[in-house]
Specification:
It is built from 13 helices and ten strands. It has helices at about 1-10, 60-75, 80-95, 110-135, 140-160, 175-195, 200-210, 225-255, 255-265, 270-310, 325-340, 345-360, 370-390, and strands spanning about 50-55, 95-100, 100-105, 165, 170-175, 215, 220-225, 310-315, 315-320, 360-365. The longest helix has about 40 residues, at about 270-310. Keywords: Membrane, Transmembrane, Transmembrane helix.
C-alpha cells in the first residue's frame, strides 16, 4: 500500500522543466456525492475554491511507443537502460496527470537512478561474498538490510519528491529513518505476527509517515486516517478470504472419499478416478489465488480512499478519493489477464487504463481563492527550487 500512496501524492498531489497546459479528458463519477462537483476546471486567478478533479490525458497508443523502445533497449543493454526507461515512463505518466489544467513534471535523470541501483547491488555483492568467506557471518546481509532499509526508504521517498514538480514548484519529503522503521519494518512485523489483525494499524503508520512528511512550496501535507474506517475495509477483505476458504473446503469435502482412498492406499486410484481429483485440485488453487488477490485489491482500494480523504494540504485544502473497490479490482485482474494473453504486448494499455481510472477518481477540495494560493506557493517555492536541483541525491530503488 505504501507504494501506491506515495505514487498518488507525487504523481497527482506516486516531464520537462517547464509545466505545460494539458486538456483534461474523461469524466469521473463520485459515488454518493453531487456529480456537479466534478466539473473539469482550469483555475484562473481569482477563481473561488471547491472540488477539482485530476484528469489523466495519456493514451495507450502513445505510451506503447515509449514502452516498446524501453523494453528493447533494456534487453540490448542487459538491463542498464532500465534506469533511463524509468525516467521516460515517469515523465510520460506525470506529464499526463493534470490538475487545474497544469500537468506534473518529473525531473530525475537516468544516471541518478543507475548510480543508486549500482550502490545497492554492490553492497549486496560485497555482503554476500563476506558471508560466503566467513560462514559465521551468514546472517550479516539480512541484518545489514534490516538496518539500512529504513534509511534507504526515507532517501528514496525524498528523491522521488524532489524530482517531482507542479507549476514549476518542487515537492519535498522530510521523513527520517526512524519513522520509516516504524512504518515499514515494525508495522510489517506486527501485521505478520498477528496474522494480519494489525494490518490496518500498519497501513495507518505508512499513510501518516508518507503523507505528513510531504511538502510542497514550503507548505505541509497532513494525513491522519482513522483506525475505524481502516478496520471496516480490512473486515471486508477478511470476509472475502473466509468465503474463498469456504469454497475450497467444500471442494475438498466433495472429493473426500477419493482423497482418503489415495492417502490410505497410494496408487489405488485408477486414471479415471484421478482426473476429477486433479481437476478439483486445480480449481482449488485457482480459488485460493483469486481469493487472496481479490481480497488484497479490495483492501488496497479501500485504504487509498481512506488515506487520501484523510489528507489535507496547508491545513485547509482536502484531498478526496472515491475509487470503487469492485471496479478497481476488475480493472486490475482484467489487466493481468489481457497482458498474459497477449504475451505482454497489452501492458501499455493496462497501465494507461489503471492510471486513468485511479487519477480521475481523485481530486482536491480547495478553500479560498485558488489563484492567490498558487501565486504564494510559486513565489515561495522558487526560492528553494534551486537547492533541490543540486541536492536531489540518488534513487536507491526502494
Amino acid at each position: 500500500m505504501g507504494a501506491l500512496f506515495i505514487a498518488g501524492f507525487l504523481c497527482s498531489a506516486k516531464n520537462s522543466h517547464t509545466a505545460r497546459p494539458v486538456k483534461p479528458s474523461c469524466s469521473m463519477h463520485l459515488e454518493g456525492a453531487n456529480d456537479m462537483a466534478f466539473a473539469a476546471s482550469a483555475a484562473p486567478a481569482g477563481q473561488a475554491g471547491g472540488f477539482h478533479r485530476i484528469t489523466f490525458t495519456g493514451k495507450a497508443s502513445e505510451y506503447f511507443g515509449i514502452w516498446i523502445v524501453n523494453v528493447l533497449l533494456t534487453i540490448l543493454t542487459l538491463g542498464i537502460y532500465s534506469a533511463w526507461a524509468k525516467v521516460r515512463r515517469n515523465r510520460y505518466f506525470y506529464g499526463n496527470t493534470v490538475l487545474l489544467g497544469r500537468s506534473f513534471e518529473y525531473h530525475a535523470k537516468g544516471l541518478q537512478i543507475l548510480i543508486g541501483r549500482l550502490i545497492v547491488l554492490g553492497a549486496f555483492v560485497v555482503l554476500n561474498i563476506i558471508a560466503t568467506l566467513v560462514p559465521i557471518l551468514v546472517l550479516l546481509p539480512t541484518l545489514v538490510v534490516l538496518i539500512a532499509l529504513p534509511w534507504l526508504v526515507a532517501k528514496g521517498l525524498r528523491f522521488s519528491a524532489r524530482v517531482t514538480s507542479y507549476r514549476n514548484v518542487r515537492f519535498d519529503f522530510v521523513g527520517g529513518a526512524g519513522g520509516a522503521f516504524k512504518a515499514f519494518i515494525l508495522g510489517s512485523l506486527l501485521a505478520v505476527i498477528t496474522i494480519g489483525i494489525l494490518t490496518p494499524l500498519a497501513s495507518r503508520w505508512v499513510s501518516r509517515y508518507i503523507g505528513s512528511n510531504l511538502r510542497y512550496g514550503g507548505k505541509a501535507f497532513d494525513t491522519d486516517p482513522k483506525l475505524g474506517p481502516l478496520y471496516k475495509s480490512w473486515l471486508l477483505s477478511l470476509l472475502i478470504v473466509i468465503l474463498g476458504l469456504g469454497i475450497i473446503a467444500l471442494i475438498a469435502f466433495l472429493n473426500l472419499p477419493l482423497i482418503l482412498a489415495m492417502i490410505e492406499t497410494p496408487g489405488a486410484l485408477s486414471p479415471e478416478q484421478q482426473i476429477p481429483l486433479f481437476i478439483a485440485g486445480a480449481i482449488g488453487y485457482i480459488v485460493l489465488f483469486a481469493t487472496f488477490g481479490i481480497s488484497g485489491l479490495f483492501y488496497r482500494a479501500g485504504v487509498r480512499n481512506i488515506a487520501w480523504s484523510a489528507t489535507t494540504f496547508d491545513g485547509q485544502h482536502r484531498m478526496l478519493s472515491d475509487v470503487s473497490r469492485t471496479r478497481y479490482t476488475w480493472i486490475a485482474i482484467s489487466n493481468v489477464i489481457v497482458t498474459l494473453l497477449t504475451f505482454g504486448l497489452m501492458r501499455p494499455w493496462a497501465a494507461v487504463r489503471m492510471a486513468r481510472y485511479t487519477w480521475e477518481h481523485t481530486g482536491v477540495n480547495f478553500t479560498g481563492d485558488i489563484g492567490e494560493l498558487f501565486s504564494r506557493i510559486e513565489a515561495q517555492g522558487s526560492a528553494v527550487g534551486s537547492e533541490f536541483m543540486d541536492f536531489e541525491g540518488f534513487d536507491f530503488g526502494f
